[in-house]
Amino acid sequence: MTTHAPAPSIDAHVGLSDRATATLVGLLYLVGTAAGTGSLAATGGGLEGPDYLASADEAGAGLAVGALLVLLMGLALALIPVVAFPVLRRVSERLAVGFVVFRGALEGTWYVVTAMTWLALFRLAADGAAQGDAGNVLFTAGETGGILQSLVFVCGATMFYVLLIRGRLVPRLLAWWGLIGAIPYALVAILGLLDVLDVLSSTAVGLQMPLALQEIVLAVWLIARGFSRAERQVEPA
């Protein structure tokens, strides 16, 4: 009697797909982190302090390189919610869509605006006009937009970590680390908007560091171990 090997189950295909998704999400996190770090290196630590317009002059072509790296960072990070959506929607489609909107569309748009601001400052610096009113307006708009972007980021990150916790997609300690780390990150943005805290100060960086470290650890975990099986949540229509 001829026997046939059993056909692969649907669950097996889903598992393979989830594993590949987790790996790609982890790689995108690392690419975004590397590009962001590279943009700071290209601009000599970024544009900050009372002499930020002078630093735009000094950065020269490094400012243009930094802008391109910001675009790369934005593209990598904006793709994360899109790539992860098929897995996250099985936990909560509403939160998964919110994650795409906040960390994909809104945050991605800000990265494009930041890159455009840096490129405009580069052009102004090349023309010797970076110290004028146009340079001041560009930098102030970019700085304010960056603070607002932090709030957008926190909203998206909160949705993401709630999804990870509800679906048990990663170890709970790792997911809760991200959720709790979003609190001081949001505090920096709020105090920055109120002009109480310099968002580029060492204090601000220290408050943001827990979440920054968590994202690196999460990326490595996803590449090495992948997602756990997503648990479907019953939601009202």
From TrEMBL:
UniProt KW Flavoprotein keyword = no
The protein's name: DUF4386 domain-containing protein
Q: Which InterPro entries match?
A: DUF4386 (IPR025495)
Source domain of life is Bacteria
Report any Pfam family annotated for this entry: DUF4386
Record carries keyword Transmembrane helix: yes
Instruction: Tell me the keywords, alphabetical order.
Output: Membrane, Transmembrane, Transmembrane helix
Write out the transmembrane intervals.
21-42, 62-88, 108-126, 146-164, 173-194, 206-224
